[in-house]
Write a structure and sequence with these properties.
The complex is a heterodimer.
Chain A (H helix, E strand, L loop, with lengths): L2 H18 L11 H25 L3 H23 L3 H21 L9
Helix pairs in contact in A: 1-2, 1-4, 2-3, 2-4, 3-4
Chain B lengths: L5 H12 L8 E9 L3 E8 L4 E8 L6 H15 L9 E6 L5 E6 L3 E3 H6 L4 H20 L2 E2 L8 E4 L4 E3 L6 E2 L25 H4 L8 H17 L6 H10 L11 H12 L11 H11 L1 H22 L1
Antiparallel strand pairs in B: 1-2, 2-3, 3-5, 4-5, 6-8, 7-10, 8-9
Classes of the chains: A mainly alpha, B alpha+beta.
Chain lengths: ~120, ~300
């Protein structure tokens, strides 16, 4: 499995979990569908970016740092658009980026270098 | 009358038993060990300025058959050019007529000594895999070792693995083999503890690569025996290699090496069928850090849910 694909799958799965936890916040429960879709898309975008980064640069520490930055940035944008729940959005989003950054560096195949 | 001291007598005995390398390019350094028919000495190659190990026939009576066996042994090893098989550099005759062959001198420890020094399980398995690869190479060239055991495996000072003592090795279906070279049916050869059942019964004609695989299984058992916790997969690999019936063992040393590699990589092995729980446990164990990250993420999520509800 390629690194970008691992990033997409993991980003999507964690994005869905992220979105579903919004059910525990009664104030936004009515918008759950949109939150899940938005969170999943956020996870997929993060996964693609981090996965392609891992395909280009094989370094676990740098991959993790990149994942954290991408996750935090995308989560921050979502939190700003929401106008609130900054901690509840940015912290999990950052951790998702860390997980995807780690997984794409550790697993998945890279294409052999051309001679 | 002056009596010689014990020390001087012992020294004279040593000098008398030293091989005479005067007709060769080697000089004697010291004796490394001796076995049933031969002794191995450390010598210096004066032309190439390096140390070598020299095996010399050391029986009271040296027959033509024994001389030919010695040369045959050197020829068998010489045809096996592999990093895991000790290379032969030279073969010749000493001034006293004894046949010798010179091989690489391996600085290091025997596998049993290496294990006694407290090597980790992973290191032992890596070394074992290297032994399997060397034996697989020999088998691919129709050579069966017939005396594999920890004492015949050296671990060099840089971690390299070398299989030694091909003294009773046999070339499978060798058309050049004559009665002088062949081991007679009914003869029990090898080391009992590492001997396959067919070898212990003296069924020389029944010996093939799988007899060596039995011995490899016994070596693996030796390496695992003093470990506090062995996985079922490792036990299964050992059991399969040491199956009483040849047909139930690994067909090749390469298969045994591959399964050992899978064990090292926390992959499922062919010798053991995992249940679902064991499969999940192995996956979790192999991906501990990722699982910890996901658990940390979920716990954090739960924490945020509870704090936001207050």
């Amino acid at each position: 499995m390629s690194k970008p694909l691992i990033g997409v799958i993991l980003g999507a799965v964690l994005g869905v979990i992220d979105g579903l936890t919004a059910w525990f916040t009664p104030a936004v429960r009515n918008e759950l569908g949109g939150i899940v879709i938005g969170s999943t898309i956020k996870g997929i975008i993060a996964g693609i970016a981090i996965g392609f980064f891992a395909k280009k640069f094989q370094s676990l520490p740098i991959g993790i740092v990149f994942g954290v930055l991408v996750g935090a940035l995308l989560a921050a944008l979502v939190a700003i658009m929401q106008g609130g729940y900054y901690l509840e959005i940015i912290l999990p989003g950052t951790l998702v980026g860390l997980i995807v950054g780690f997984a794409t560096q550790k697993y998945g195949t890279t294409p052999a270098a051309a001679n | 009358m002056n009596w010689l001291s014990d020390e001087k007598v012992n020294r004279l005995r040593t000098v008398v038993s030293e091989p005479d390398f005067s007709a060769t390019k080697y000089t004697f350094v010291k004796e490394l060990g001796r076995g049933g028919m031969g002794a191995v000495y450390l010598a210096e190659d004066l032309e190439l300025d390096r140390l070598v190990a020299i095996k010399v026939l050391n029986t009271p009576e040296i027959t033509e058959d024994l001389r030919n066996r010695m040369v045959r042994e050197a020829q068998i090893i010489a045809r096996l050019e592999h990093p895991g098989i000790v290379p032969v550099h030279d073969v010749g005759t000493l001034a006293d007529g004894r046949i010798f062959y010179a091989m690489k001198y391996v600085r290091g420890s025997r596998l049993d000594e290496y294990a006694a020094q407290g090597a980790s399980l992973r290191d032992r398995l890596r070394k074992f895999q290297a032994v399997c690869d060397a034996v697989a190479f020999a088998h691919a060239h129709a050579v069966i070792h017939r005396d594999l055991k920890p004492q015949n495996i050296m671990i060099g000072s840089f971690g390299e693995v070398l299989v030694l003592d091909w003294g009773i090795a046999k070339i499978r279906d060798d058309p050049r083999a004559s009665a002088a070279y062949q081991t007679m049916e009914g003869t029990v050869i090898g080391t009992r503890r590492y001997m396959s059942p067919e070898q212990a019964r003296g069924e020389i004609d029944q010996l093939d690569e799988r007899s060596d695989i039995y011995a490899l299984g016994a070596v693996l058992y030796f390496l695992l025996n003093d470990q506090p916790k062995i996985s079922k997969a490792a036990e299964a690999i050992c059991s399969k290699a040491m199956a009483s019936a040849k047909e139930d063992r690994y067909a090749t040393a390469s298969e045994l090496s591959a399964d050992t590699g899978r064990l090292l990589d926390a992959e499922p092995v062919s010798a053991y069928r995992e249940n679902a729980f064991e499969r999940v446990s192995r996956w979790v164990s192999k991906n501990r850090f990722l699982v910890l990250l996901v658990v940390a993420y979920l716990l954090m999520r739960i924490f945020l849910i509870f704090t936001s509800r207050r």
